[in-house]
Design a protein that fits this description.
4 copies of one chain form a homotetramer.
Chain A (H helix, E strand, L loop, with lengths): L5 E6 L4 H10 L5 E7 L8 H4 L11 E2 L11 E4 L5 H7 L6 E4 L9 H8 L6 H6 L1 E2 L6 H6 L2 E3 L3 H15 L9 E6 L14 H4 L4 E2 L7 H13 L6 E6 L6 E8 L6 H11 L6 E3 L17 E7 L5 E8 L3 H15 L16
Parallel strand pairs in A: 1-2, 1-4, 2-3, 4-5, 5-7, 6-7, 8-10, 12-13
Antiparallel strand pairs in A: 8-11, 9-10, 11-14, 13-14
Helix pairs in contact in A: 1-11, 7-9
C-alpha cells in the first residue's frame, strides 16, 4: 500500500483550512502528510498548534523554504491570498498544487487587481490554473498542475446555479444571493469582529455590495450563461463555527418551475458523490452536512408567480475549502474521488 | 405615584412573550402587574415558572377564569393564536387589551381562515381591532380598545418598508424579504426542532413560501402602496436566543437611491424613540438591539443597477412582541412612550 | 471483503446515540448496517429521521419485532433504560449485544432497584453482562455475549481514576468529581430544559447528589480500590452539543504528585489508541476530542499541599457512548480496535 | 432632579466593563455620564465604538489627560491592571474613584508583586483603598475615596463563603472552588483563545493553580476566618457571553448541614437587594441572573457524609464588575442602592 501513496505538503498548516486538510489527509488511504509549513510556528510539532492532532503521524512544522520538494508529489496550499502567489511561484515544477487561496481563481488579471487592490505577481501561473469546482471541471482538473479551489461561497453558489443557468431554467438578470456563514470562514486571524463575545447570540450582514466572492461567482455564471452576468451577493455572519447557507432568489426562465430545476439538478449530479438534493419539501440544513464534503441543494416555487427560491448548504471548511482540495487531489492523481472524504456529517 | 398606576393582567404569562412582558412591566413607573394567568400552572408563584423573577413583586399565576377583572385596567395577552380569540372575547368591556397573538392582525376574516385553517370566532372584535405597529398607527392605538400587536417579522419588515413604499422610493413588485430569526420566536413549546442539539451550530430555512407572517406583511404593504402587493418572505432559523434580521432586496423606483431612502427613513422616524438608522456604511446587527425596544434600519445601493439592499434588525421578544405591547399600552393610556422601555441593549 | 463483514442491527436508531452508531458504522470496514429499529418511525427511511444520512446505504427503520435475527451477528442497542432490558431479553442467543443503556451496568440488582426505582426484569442477563469500559475489561469483552457500555460520565471518570486508584496514587475518600456536559447527553427527548432557549447562553448544575451515574462510578472505583468507595459527583449542563469535561479534586496518597500520576497514566494507556494525556502543562479541552473516540487526561498539583487536580475530556456521544460501543464490537469480533473509529477530532 | 445628579467619568470606556458601565449609567436617575475616555479611540463618538449606544446621550471619547476633572464627581475606571494604578494616581483628590481593575484589591503589596510580577506604583493609594464587596463593606465604602471592586470570581465566591466562614458553618481547609465563566470575562482583547471558533461548542479549564483571583479570595476568606486560608480555585471557560458559576465543595463544621447554611445566608442577606437564595431544591442558573446585578446562592448536603455542595451564580459584567461598581457608587453618594440597577434578568 505504501508504494501507492503520494507525499503531500500542506503549506500554511496553522490556519483552519490547513488544519482541516490535515484532518482529512490523516485518514486518506492514498496520501501521507510529508511536510507541514507555518512560518510563524516553524520547529513546533503540529500538536502544539492543534492539540487535537496529537495522535496524527506528521512531521513538525517548518518554514516553507525548508521543504524538501524532491520528496513531494502534491502541495495543498492554505496560505492567505497574496502570500500564496509568491510562495507557489517558487515551488518546483514537478509538484502539483492545489491552492485554497483566492490568488488563482479569477481568470482575468484586471479583475484580480480591481478587487484585491494589487497587481498579480504570477500572471503566467494564473494563465495555466484550472478553476477547481470539482463537479464541473473534472477533466481539466485531472490534467492540471495548478488547481485554484473556489471560495466557499462560490462553491455553494455555483454548484447550485451552473446547471440551472446552462439549462436555461433561470434568468440571469437580478439574481439575488443571500448568504449566511459560520465564523470559521474568517480564519484564525485576530480581529475584533471574530471574538466570541462579538459573534455569539448575534448576527449581521457584512461586505454589503463589496465581497470578493462576487466577481468569482459572476465569472463562472457568465461562462455558464455565455454572456456577462452580474449578481447580488450579500453575506451575513451567523453564530456557528462551520456551515454556509445560500438562499437564492431568481426568476424562472422559459416557463420552468422548481420541479424542472430539481430534475435538472438530479440529472447533472446523478453520479456526483458529494452533491445531493434535500428531501422533497425540505430546505437543506447546515447540520445535515457539517464536517462532510457534501453540498445539499433544493428548489421551491415562490409565491410570487414566475419566481423560484433555491438553496445550497455546505461546510465551508470541507466542501468549501479543504474537502474540495482533497477531492481535487484525488481527481488529479487518479484516486477514487471519495478517498479520505467518506466521513458522514457530525450531528448533533 | 401609586394612584397614577394602572393595573395590568398578563394573560398567558408562562411563555416567553409573557415573561418578557413581566420583565418590562416590573420596572414600569405607571403600571403594576395585578394578575398573571397560565392555566397549566395555576396556583404556582411566578418564580416557580420563571425563577429569574424571584425578586419581582407579582401575584401567583391563576386560571384566566379566576381573574378579578373589576380590578384590571389593561390586559396584555401572550396566548397562542386561536386560544387568544376565545379568551379575549370573554374579557369585560372596560378592560383595554393588547394582544400579542396573531388572532386580530389580519383585517380580512377570509385571509385569516385561509392561513390559519379555521374560521374566526370573534369577527366583531376583529372589526374593531387596531393593528399595533406603534410608529404608524399611533392615533388609532391611542383610542383603541383592542390592539393587535404585529408579528415579530412584520414589525421588522413594515417599519422598514412602509415609509419607502409610501414615498414611492421602491417598487412593490418582486420584493424579496430574506429573514433570519433566533429561536425564542418559536416560543417555549416542546417541539423537536427547538431542541438545543437540533439548533446549535446549525441553520436552515423553514416555512418556505408558507409562513403566516407573509399575508400580514402583504396586508400592510398593500395599504401603504394603495394596491395589492405580494411579497417573497423566506424565514431562516439561526442559533441564537433573541434577534431578528431582515435583508430586503428591492428595485428602486423613480430613480431613487439608498441615500434617498436613508433621508426618508430619518425624516419619518425623527421623533420615534425606538427606530433608528445604523451608522452610515454599517449594516445593523442584532447585538446592537438585543434586549431593547429598538428597531435598526439601513439602506445600501446594490451593485445591480437600479436595485437596493435594505436591512432591519430588532429583538423579536421586545420590539417584535412584548416591548411593542408595552409601547402600545403607553400610547393607549397616555403615558410617555418610553416608560418601562428605556433599557439599553445588552451586549455582549 | 464482503465475506468478512458482520451484519449489525442498531436497535433504537432514532435517538442521538443510535444516530452516532450509524455514522460510525457507515464507514466501518468490517461491519454493515443490516437492520435499524425505531418503533415510532417504523417504515420510514433513515434519511427521513436523520436527513444527514441520505447518502448512507441502510435499510428503512422497522419495529424491533420485525428484525430478521437469523441474519444478524451483533446488535448495538440505543434504547432508553428499562425498555432496553425487555427488548434485549428477547434477542436470540446467537446475537452478540452491545448495550448503550444503563440497564446492565450495575452489577448489583439491589443498587439498580434503588437508583432506577424499579426491579430488574432480566437479572440472569445482568449476571452475565460485562462492563464495557474497553481499556480495562478487554479480555472479558472479547468473550462476552452482552456488553454494557458505561455511561458517558463514568467512562470519563473511570478512565482517569481506575489506574490511579489501583496504583495507590490517590486517596479514595472525599473524591470530588465536578462534571460538565453538552446537551446531546440528554438525548432527543422533548423536555423543556433541553430547548435551545433554555440552554444557550446559560449554565447550571443539575441532579445534585442524585445522578444515576454516581453508583456506577462508585461500583468500579470500589472494585479498583478493593473496598467500598463513595464519591461526590456533581454534573453541570453547558451550552454545547457534544463534549464532557470532568475536573476531579483528590488527595494524593503515599506522597505522590501529579508527575507520578502522569507517568502512571502514560504507562497504563501506552498501547491504548484512544486514551492520551494532554500536552504537558495544558488542561484537556473538549474541542480537541470532538467527534472522535479519544479520551484526554491530565494531572496537576494543587496549590493546596498534598492535593491534585485531575481532568478528563471526551465526546459524550462517541467515547461516551456509540464510539465505545463500536470499539467493544471490534474487540468482541476480533477486529482492529480502531476499525471505523479513525476520524480525527472536528475542530473548529 | 438635574441638580441632584452627579457627573461621572468612565475611564476606559471601550472595553466590555466600560460598556456595561455606560449601559447602566444611561438609565441612572442620579448620575450622568460627563466624560468617557479611551486613548486608542479619542475623538470618536461612543456609538462608533459601541453602536448599541447610538441613542445614549454621552460625550465623545477623549484621552484621559483631556478630562476636565473640575466638572467630575466620580470616576468609574475600567482600565486593565497596571495601567489603572498609574492613571488613578493622577486623578485630583476631589474625585471619588470606583476602580474595576485588580490594582487595589490586594491589601498586601508583596502579594500584589508576587502575583502580578511587578511592583506597585501607588502603594499609598492602596493603603487607603476599600475592598468593594458591597454587601460586606457597606460602611467603609460609604466613606471611601477609592473603592477597589472585587474581581468577578471573588465576588461570586465571597458572597457565598464569607457568611458561612464567619458563622463557623464550614471548614476552611480543603475548600474546592470549581468555577465556570463566560467569555466576556476575558475582555475585548485580541487573543486567539477568545476567538469564536476556539470557544464555541467547547470548554476547558485554564490557569490551573495559577489564577490571580485565588489570592484575592484567600485574602478575604482569611479575614473572615481570622486565620490564613488557602483555597483551590480552578476556573473553566464555557461557551457563553455572560455568566459565572461557582460550585464549591466544603466540609461542614460543627455538625452543620446545608439547611443551616441556607438559614445563615437568608439572614445575612435579608436586606440585600441583590443577593438571593435559589428556590429550595434548585441549583442556581446563570440565565436567572443574566444582565442583572443579582447573585444567586444555594447549599446542598453532599452524599459524602459531613460535606456540602455550595453554588453561586452571577453575571460577570454586572454584579461581577460594572453593576457592583454602580452599586458602590450609590453607597458612596448616599443614593438608593438599587438606583440604575433595577433591570430584571434577560432570559431567554
Amino acid at each position: 500500500m505504501a508504494n501507492s501513496q503520494i507525499n503531500v505538503a500542506i503549506i500554511g498548516a496553522s490556519g483552519y483550512t490547513g488544519a482541516d486538510a490535515v484532518r482529512l489527509l490523516a485518514a486518506h488511504p492514498r496520501a501521507r502528510i510529508a511536510a507541514l509549513t507555518g512560518n510563524a510556528h516553524a520547529g513546533k510539532p503540529l500538536a502544539e498548534i492543534f492539540p487535537q492532532f496529537a495522535s496524527v503521524d506528521a512531521p513538525p512544522l517548518c518554514r516553507v523554504e525548508e521543504v524538501d520538494w524532491q520528496n513531494i508529489d502534491a502541495a495543498i496550499c492554505g496560505l492567505p491570498h497574496s502570500t500564496a502567489q509568491d510562495v507557489i511561484a517558487d515551488i518546483p515544477e514537478h509538484v502539483r498544487i492545489i491552492d485554497m487561496s483566492a490568488d488563482f481563481r479569477l481568470r482575468d488579471v484586471q479583475v484580480y487587481q480591481e478587487w484585491y487592490g494589487r497587481s498579480h505577481d504570477a500572471p503566467d501561473l494564473l494563465g495555466g490554473a484550472v478553476y477547481g469546482l470539482s463537479e464541473h471541471y473534472r477533466a481539466q482538473i485531472a490534467d492540471a498542475r495548478l488547481v485554484a479551489c473556489p471560495g466557499c461561497y462560490p462553491t455553494a453558489a455555483l454548484t447550485l446555479l451552473i446547471p440551472l443557468v446552462k439549462a436555461g431554467l433561470i434568468e440571469t438578470s437580478d439574481l439575488i444571493i443571500d448568504a449566511k456563514s459560520g465564523v470559521s470562514g474568517a480564519g484564525r486571524s485576530l480581529k475584533e469582529q471574530n471574538l466570541f463575545a462579538e459573534v455569539a447570540e448575534a448576527m449581521h450582514a457584512y461586505g454589503v455590495g463589496a465581497h470578493r466572492h462576487a466577481p468569482e461567482i459572476e465569472q463562472e455564471v457568465s461562462l455558464a450563461a455565455g454572456h456577462s452576468v452580474m449578481v447580488n451577493f450579500t453575506p451575513h455572519l451567523v453564530p456557528m463555527n462551520r456551515g454556509e447557507y445560500l438562499s437564492v432568489y431568481a426568476k424562472a426562465a422559459n416557463g420552468a418551475g422548481a420541479q424542472d430545476m430539481r430534475i435538472c439538478l438530479e440529472e447533472v449530479y446523478r453520479d456526483a458523490p458529494f452533491v445531493r438534493l434535500a428531501r422533497a419539501g425540505l430546505a437543506p440544513a447546515t447540520r445535515h452536512v457539517r464536517g462532510s464534503n457534501i453540498c445539499e441543494l433544493a428548489a421551491f416555487d415562490d409565491r410570487l408567480p414566475g419566481r423560484v427560491i433555491l438553496f445550497s448548504a455546505l461546510d465551508n471548511l470541507v466542501k468549501g475549502s479543504s474537502g474540495q482540495a482533497v477531492q481535487n487531489m484525488n481527481i488529479m492523481f487518479g484516486f477514487d474521488e471519495t478517498d479520505g472524504l467518506e466521513q458522514q456529517p457530525l450531528y448533533p
